[in-house]
């Protein structure tokens, strides 16, 4: 009997198709190793790796015990206002897949909690039981979308999950993944992290041939390409589809009997593989998700690799010939959690090293080192240790500010920033302060933070940024402003310093960043720092989410209106800014 598609949604039902034919039985045989022995071990071998899980791989308490009984699921719809005071680039997605555990959906739920920082606006899980793909998706945080009763609707030992940072207002729910669809040989669910730079041309071609789209997500293109493939085995349909994709994609697929993980040939976005003590195989965007569900890290899914998990075990296929990896450097600067290991490197150690480099190359006489929490903390610790100056909490972050707020009728200056960041006068008053942040995007939030610190009594404020200046927009799965809006693309470092009002300003020098990475440096993507793209963006892309927001002020979701902007089709051959330090 073909796998059925069943969906239970928090707010509404997305497209679903019920197949009418028996799916083709396909049990892949072991394939020749698609990678050299130096880069890819056999399927029975784990990479040498020092990362340790947070817990041992045995638990006396079932996962079910972590969920309270009969608690009502709070309304997870978006409110009238949108709140964004961080003006940081936003990672758009996190994915997880689990095969071979009777509580797969609950483990997915916990893993998505660990990946919540990668997307806060929507979440979903698809589980498989008796050849039925059951789906629950909704708008909001993972804890808002799922309840004990919702997870009871997702039985089975095979599941995938997704968290999403949304890019539109009213169309948000139907774009929440995983997507589930049926085609003539079965049913398939997919969760995608990344962005396809040839999405528009692929969609236009498919529509010309009669395809009907239900969402504005590039992920739906992948489902259509799988459905029209001439290959019969599902795995070869995935390979056929992916060979037509350009850009960044780390995806997990689920059918009635298989879990499949795929990573694009450049390896832009992370995807790791682990295993629980009961043998269950886990895929996730970051190792922090493996830690929470007591899965031991085994290896990355390699760039250009397709990993298939079914009753016959784990099989690996080479998606296509792949160039040198171009992994996103911003995973180490901002996106990933410090306790994760991404692209084989500890995120914590990378950020601490960034701070140490800043202390060495941009020293300044100071009394205290503070961070812009939370993303600047580890770099600030590295700066303080290298400089021999005490690190203190000069800014306290409120973790209880939701997406909405009510401002008093009399305007409060820098209201959005003050809601989330509170200065500690006892730490700052009369002091020469170094404040470390991970990046500057538009610069407006940085100017408000500097003003906040000086109003709290800081004698001097010296800003240190643990990344090079950002001059290019990202087209590989990160929501960033257009290049024209990036302050480092419009101003010199001295002009930025004057704009934000700090006493000095220093960015992490690009050469020092690559020197720290040593032989791994060529494997990273630096397009946001150089404007040079490994895969040229040739089409338009939604980019203006949050642009109507002045770093914490509110605005109507309806005013977003898509925000389509033209890609930088002929990026100028910009020199990476080396004037990274300005002192006065």
From TrEMBL:
Protein name: amidophosphoribosyltransferase
Catalytic activity, EC: 2.4.2.14
Pfam families in UniProt: GATase_7, Pribosyltran
Protein keywords: Glutamine amidotransferase, Glycosyltransferase, Iron, Iron-sulfur, Metal-binding, Purine biosynthesis, Transferase
Domain Glutamine amidotransferase type-2: 93-312
Range of residues in the leader sequence: none
The keyword Transferase is annotated on this UniProt entry: yes
High-level lineage: Eukaryota, Viridiplantae, Streptophyta, Embryophyta, Tracheophyta
Listed pathway(s): Purine metabolism; IMP biosynthesis via de novo pathway; N(1)-(5-phospho-D-ribosyl)glycinamide from 5-phospho-alpha-D-ribose 1-diphosphate: step 1/2
Superkingdom classification of source: Eukaryota
NCBIfam families, alphabetized: purF
InterPro entries: GATase_2_dom (IPR017932), Ntn_hydrolases_N (IPR029055), PRTase-like (IPR029057), PRTase_dom (IPR000836), PurF (IPR005854), PurF_N (IPR035584)
Cofactor(s) for this UniProt protein: [4Fe-4S] cluster
Name of the top EC class for this enzyme: transferase
Catalysed reaction, written as an equation: 5-phospho-beta-D-ribosylamine + L-glutamate + diphosphate = 5-phospho-alpha-D-ribose 1-diphosphate + L-glutamine + H2O
GO biological process: 'de novo' IMP biosynthetic process; purine nucleobase biosynthetic process
Gene3D superfamilies in the record: 3.40.50.2020, Glutamine Phosphoribosylpyrophosphate, subunit 1, domain 1 (3.60.20.10)
GO molecular function terms listed in the Swiss-Prot or TrEMBL record: amidophosphoribosyltransferase activity; iron-sulfur cluster binding
Keyword Magnesium: no
Chain segments carrying region Disordered: 1-47
Family: In the C-terminal section; belongs to the purine/pyrimidine phosphoribosyltransferase family.
């Amino acid at each position: 009997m073909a796998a059925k598609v069943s969906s239970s949604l928090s707010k509404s039902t997305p497209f679903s198709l019920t197949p009418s034919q028996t799916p083709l039985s396909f049990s892949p045989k072991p394939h020749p190793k698609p990678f050299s022995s130096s880069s890819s071990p056999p399927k029975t071998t784990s990479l040498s790796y020092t990362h340790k899980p947070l817990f041992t791989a045995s638990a006396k308490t079932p996962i079910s015990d972590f969920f309270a009984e009969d608690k009502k699921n709070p309304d997870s719809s978006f409110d009238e206002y949108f709140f964004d005071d961080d003006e940081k680039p936003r990672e758009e997605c996190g994915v997880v897949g689990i095969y071979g555990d009777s509580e797969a959906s609950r483990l997915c739920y916990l893993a998505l909690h660990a990946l919540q920082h990668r997307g806060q606006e929507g979440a979903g899980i698809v589980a498989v039981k008796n050849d039925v793909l059951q789906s629950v998706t909704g708008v909001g945080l993972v804890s808002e979308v799922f309840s004990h009763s919702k997870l009871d609707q997702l039985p089975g030992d095979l599941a995938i999950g997704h968290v999403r940072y949304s890019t539109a207002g009213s169309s948000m729910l139907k774009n929440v993944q995983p997507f589930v669809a049926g085609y003539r040989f079965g049913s398939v669910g997919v969760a995608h992290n990344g962005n396809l730079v040839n999405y528009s041309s692929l969609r236009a071609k498919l529509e010309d041939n009669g395809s009907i789209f239900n969402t504005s997500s590039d992920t739906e293109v992948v489902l259509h390409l799988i459905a029209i493939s001439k290959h019969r085995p599902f795995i070869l349909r995935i390979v056929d589809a992916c060979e037509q994709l350009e850009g960044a994609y780390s995806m997990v697929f689920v059918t009635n009997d298989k879990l499949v993980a795929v990573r694009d040939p450049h390896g832009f976005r992370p995807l790791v593989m682990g295993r629980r003590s009961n043998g269950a195989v886990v895929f996730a965007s970051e190792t922090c998700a493996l830690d929470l569900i007591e899965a031991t890290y085994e290896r990355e899914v390699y760039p250009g690799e397709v990993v298939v998990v079914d009753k016959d075990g784990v099989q690996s296929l080479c998606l296509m010939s792949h160039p040198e990896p171009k992994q996103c450097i911003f995973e180490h600067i901002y996106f990933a959690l410090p306790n994760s290991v991404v692209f084989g490197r500890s995120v914590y150690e990378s950020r601490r090293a960034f701070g140490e480099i800043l202390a060495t190359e941009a020293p300044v006489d100071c009394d205290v080192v503070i961070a812009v929490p939370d993303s600047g903390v580890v770099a600030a610790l590295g700066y303080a240790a290298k400089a021999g100056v005490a690190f203190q909490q000069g800014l306290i972050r409120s973790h209880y500010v939701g997406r909405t707020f009510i401002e008093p009728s009399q305007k409060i200056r820098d209201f959005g920033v003050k809601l989330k960041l509170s200065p500690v006068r006892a730490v700052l008053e009369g002091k020469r302060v170094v404040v470390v942040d991970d990046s500057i995007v538009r610069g407006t939030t940085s100017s408000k933070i500097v003003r906040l610190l000086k109003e709290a009594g800081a004698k001097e404020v010296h800003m240190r940024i643990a990344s090079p200046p950002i001059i290019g927009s990202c087209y590989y799965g990160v929501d960033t402003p257009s290049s024209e809006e990036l302050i480092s693309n419009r101003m010199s470092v001295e002009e930025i310093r004057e704009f934000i009002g700090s006493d000095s300003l220093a960015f992490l020098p690009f050469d020092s960043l690559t020197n720290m990475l040593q032989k791994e440096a060529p494997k990273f993507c630096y397009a946001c720092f150089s404007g040079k793209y490994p895969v040229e963006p040739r089409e338009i892309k939604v980019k203006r989410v949050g642009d109507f927001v002045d770093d914490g002020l509110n605005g109507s979701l309806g005013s977003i209106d898509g925000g389509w902007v033209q890609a930088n089709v002929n990026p100028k051959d910009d020199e990476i800014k080396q004037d990274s330090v300005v002192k006065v």
